[in-house]
């Protein structure tokens, strides 16, 4: 089964006048997240935008200097206030927004304001399940901002989405009683079992450069409660196209496992990748 949630590479081309469009991106308001996280995500978004031809991104230091000189604040900024800040920096457009956390999800919300008209020409949100996915969310937003700028300015914007290498495939998910690796098992004797070990085999299409992923394994007990959650790094070495990831949970004494059917869900980089289970008798 293929994992979902990977963001494609983005190539954006502009056909426009010699003068580039100037864009300012304010620091993001932090809602339920650490301020440093919001600052880091805003900087990632600026970096994604800097790579777009025909767009000049105002440096954060220049933006901060104007905010300080004019005693402005970006928290809860209206479209008119954003346009005022954009005009003071010489920007054609200004992007303002927030990074928020709710439960186990993170949402990046951005509004694009045209400085000349003081109108919000784009409102875009991207929600992800882990902080590791936020850079990909920034890439999605950079694409949306590029398209909006092109539509507003009359520039011709060509956005070609070229998929990255397909995400790794889960070949198998097997379970073993710790100490007995002769063959995978679908059931375990409660009186003899201390730890159950899972073995996840992954395969990518081609052997290429190093490629890092994150595996999350959630154990659900027969009573329906989540008992454990494990996070494991999963890194393909250079030239490798197969990978084995191993983990496990259990108790120090046999006889402690809850009898019944256990379910194990596997996520790869935050996206559901596989599920399996076993019975404790």
UniProtKB/TrEMBL annotation:
<dbReference type="Pfam" id="PF03783">
    <property type="entry name" value="CsgG"/>
</dbReference>
<dbReference type="InterPro" id="IPR005534">
    <property type="entry name" value="Curli_assmbl/transp-comp_CsgG"/>
</dbReference>
<dbReference type="GO" id="GO:0030288">
    <property type="term" value="C:outer membrane-bounded periplasmic space"/>
</dbReference>
<keyword id="KW-0732">Signal</keyword>
<feature type="signal peptide">
    <location>
        <begin position="1"/>
        <end position="17"/>
    </location>
</feature>
<protein>
    <recommendedName>
        <fullName>FlgO domain-containing protein</fullName>
    </recommendedName>
</protein>
